[in-house]
Please model this.
Amino acid sequence: MSTSTQQHRREAPASVRCAVITVSDTRTLDDDRGGALVVEHLEAAGHIVHQRQIIPDEPDQMRPLVKSLVDGGNVDAILLTGGTGITARDQTCETITALLDKPMPGYGELFRMLSFEEIGPAAMLSRAVGGVVGGVIVLTMPGSTAAVRLAMERLIAPELSHLVYEANK
Model:
């Protein structure tokens, strides 16, 4: 690891304010295991969950919610789970991609690489996008608990503070 990366991690905020959004037409807060797992990993890493919400996979609801969270200034990161498949109904990736000021293609690439290690060629169905919107980190991940666990343990939790630090330089 480079010296500058180590220095940036030391300078990064210890705690990040997050919003967790589950994109689903069927889940409720009582049965949303993927969203609950995101919250669990964030809190275990010392981050603050400022807001948790479930919305249907509707771009006309997703877009204004993300914009209001960014404009509100109360969050440093927005994590979305669900709606990332390839069916006609899955629109999370397209909606978020259209909002990104600075895409981070490495996030999706790494997610699929790690997913391939676990599930083989079916990983090509795993869509995950991320980047920066108005200085706020926005990351999507599939809704399955296995995908959430993979994204949170291997990518997001270890690097979220550093991502926020970089997005606000």
Notes: The radius of gyration is 15 Å. The beta strands are 17-23, 48-55, 77-81, 102-103, 130-133, 136-141.
